[in-house]
Amino acid sequence: LSERLSGVFDKLGKQGALSDEDVKTALREVRVALLEADVSLPVARDFVAAVQEKATGQAVTRSVTPGQQVVKIVHDELVHVLAGDGDTAGQLKIDNPPAPILMVGLQGSGKTTTTAKLAKRLKEKSGKRVLMASLDVNRPAAMEQLAVLGVQVGVDTLPIVKGQTPVEIARRAKQQATMGGYDVYMLDTAGRLSIDEALMAEVEAVRDVTSPRETMLVVDGLTGQDAVHTAENFDARIGISGVVLTRMDGDGRGGAALSMRAVTGKPIKFVGLGEKLDALEEFHPERVAGRILGMGDIVSLVEKAQETIEAEQAERMMKRFQKGQFNMNDLKSQIEQMQKLGGMEGVMGMLPGMKKMSKQVEAAGMDDTLLKRQIALIQSMTKKERANPQLLQASRKKRIAKGAGLEVSELNKLLKMHRQMADMMKKMGKMGKKGMMRGALG
Ligand code: GDP
Ligand code: MG
């Protein structure tokens, strides 16, 4: 992608806003690059459309080239799609012991290996007692494979009884996990070379007798289009709660990750990075985004662009404040800055004497969820309203609060805060440049 894009980008204009034509040219190349990285066609198409919307008309930042800027937008959108809500990577729901975890996927995707890797992780990182059971009655020696891995990672496996059906084994695992006081029991199912009815019916029956807390789809990260097909099928029929992408140590470009995430909307929780049993990591969207873009130095490039863009934004904002302008967009940037600094708690922790106040702050509902609620309210305003908060009369207020799923009283508090800050900005503006603390804007 690097060479291809830099060629195109050199031709892009250097001034003003990114033009339609600039963006279109660049994104045609981005689309090809995505397809080369094994992202499925419809996903690549949607992705490019989303980026186009974000990029068109965006002001070109002075110190980065339009090319760098488009790369940054593409990168950020990739991370955004890959991360989803972003808070479930590396996590499994394993309350109410014994918690069943169902492992599903095609043959050879790495289910059995991943089962052992996850069991090891649960044992070592979370101190959980884990029982593993192989339900693979098809492949010769599949059960023995899991038993051997169990010994290697020091995790118990369900004793092998030949001649039982997968459902019978699952029942036995549940019983043993309950009686043996295990926290988690993992069910390693049989795969097939491709999706078929017999496989689905079998997995479905196992699901119904165990009600898994997590159903993890294990997918080979080297497969592109197929991965999507697999994920759609498993999700439609079985319902998956998360994805593990294996073989991310290979030279696949990770396009499967984007496709999977976009199509199923299910979080990618872990990635497999080798055959060794500790080669499992929680999913890092930035790394995969860098990989899809195919540039080793993309991350530092993006960081540099980010810093420049932030500095210019701060400068532009400062100028507005000095003129006494402070609208909802400014307030939103301020709140987002606070979130970056680690939210209310982070900011409070940095100020002397504030620690003591944190209880009162909590009582006043001023925790991190407040910042999120405030952002939600601002996002529910139209562009015009954000620029001119004085427009906000009763009916608009109702609509905005409803759009954010909150009460009007909460919106009123936000508006009051905005007025107070606007006043303060005005006063600070009058004090002139000297009185302003640049650092205050981060
Ligand atoms: P299953 O049929 O889905 O149970 O797949 P297995 O767990 O038996 O794995 C099939 C092969 O893939 C084995 O040789 C594993 O060692 C290998 N494998 C599994 N995960 C990874 C991974 O993340 N990276 C690499 N390089 N190999 C893996
Ligand atoms: Mg297996």
UniProtKB/TrEMBL annotation:
Does this UniProt record's set of keywords contain Zinc-finger?
A: no
Topology relative to the lipid bilayer, per the entry, is: Peripheral membrane protein
**Alphabetical list of SMART domains matching this protein:** AAA, SRP54, SRP54_N
Has UniProt tagged this entry with the keyword Cytoplasm? yes
Which InterPro entries does the UniProt record give?
AAA+_ATPase, P-loop_NTPase, Signal_recog_part_SRP54_M_sf, Signal_recog_particl_SRP54_hlx, Signal_recog_particle_SRP54_M, SRP, SRP54, SRP54_GTPase_dom
Which residues, by range, are in coiled-coil regions?
none
GO terms in the biological process aspect are: SRP-dependent cotranslational protein targeting to membrane
> Which Enzyme Commission number(s) are on file for it?
3.6.5.4
* Residues annotated as binding GTP: 105-112, 188-192, 246-249
Q: Which domain of life is it from?
A: Bacteria
Can you quote a single GO CC term?
A: signal recognition particle
An example molecular function term from Gene Ontology annotations: GTP binding
**Keywords of this protein's UniProt record, alphabetized?**
Cytoplasm, GTP-binding, Hydrolase, Nucleotide-binding, Ribonucleoprotein, RNA-binding, Signal recognition particle
Where is this chain's protein located in or outside the cell? Cell inner membrane; Cytoplasm
Subunit info here reads: Part of the signal recognition particle protein translocation system, which is composed of SRP and FtsY. SRP is a ribonucleoprotein composed of Ffh and a 4.5S RNA molecule.
| Family according to the record | Belongs to the GTP-binding SRP family. SRP54 subfamily.
Q: What does this protein do?
A: Involved in targeting and insertion of nascent membrane proteins into the cytoplasmic membrane. Binds to the hydrophobic signal sequence of the ribosome-nascent chain (RNC) as it emerges from the ribosomes. The SRP-RNC complex is then targeted to the cytoplasmic membrane where it interacts with the SRP receptor FtsY. Interaction with FtsY leads to the transfer of the RNC complex to the Sec translocase for insertion into the membrane, the hydrolysis of GTP by both Ffh and FtsY, and the dissociation of the SRP-FtsY complex into the individual components.
Domain-related comment: Composed of three domains: the N-terminal N domain, which is responsible for interactions with the ribosome, the central G domain, which binds GTP, and the C-terminal M domain, which binds the RNA and the signal sequence of the RNC.
What HAMAP family does this protein's entry cite?
Answer: SRP54
* Official protein name in the record: Signal recognition particle protein
Q: Which organism is it from?
A: Brevirhabdus pacifica
Q: Which gene encodes it?
A: ffh
